[in-house]
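Re-run with default settings, no changes from the original entry. Doing this only to confirm the output is reproducible before filing.
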Amino acid sequence: DVSLLGFAFLNKTSMSSFNAVFLIAKCFAERGIDVILDADGTRRHHSKRAHQDRVASKDRLRIELLGLRASLGQLIHQPNPTDEIIAEKDELTKTIKTKEKQYQRSLPSDFVVNLEKLAQSWTSKSKNGVSISLERSLWQADPTIAKRAIDGDIDAILSGDSDFAMYVGPGGKDGLADIMIRKPEFTSKRDSIKTLEIWTGQKRVAEYINATLNTKIGTKIPFQRRRRIPSLMA
């Protein structure tokens, strides 16, 4: 889910958000795993309440900023301002800067385009037949990704959206569809993934992952249970 991952890295690293997402994809592809980058479409379905809430919140913030800037303008044009007015102006300026950062916290318009260019470039140079491809959904990406998992077309979902556990359920042809990789963190050199978490809402899947990791790594990794979210975490 490139939009969700890109947003998670927005303004948090020295890399651009699309470079951060591509690095994650490249780490898997270099280990022989095909990667599909699913991007949100340009439209949102009217039934998506969370999206409508975000739009409304951003509109409220825009209106609030207009009012704050108007108030700041009045203070700036005060003749012979007192210490109290100067302090109020400074505080208002800080508030406006903070809220402007909140308002501007969105993925750049060229996020998907740049990510697609990187994916195409890497795939064209791939020598082992492994690919990184980008596909844009009609609406949002999460239902598209969930369907891929249910149909057995993918082995794991790289995201952070807790909705997937409800979308997918046991799903998949082998009953192992509900595998989500979350919170990838980079090495200090930002050339590979240092840590990540594996989540699932299915006990059978948790046991399968544990057995697989034990075989590959030779160490049994206990699953942690969190009651707030109906998932098991490795």
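The longest strand covers residues 193-200. Residues 227-234 have pLDDT under 50 and may be disordered.
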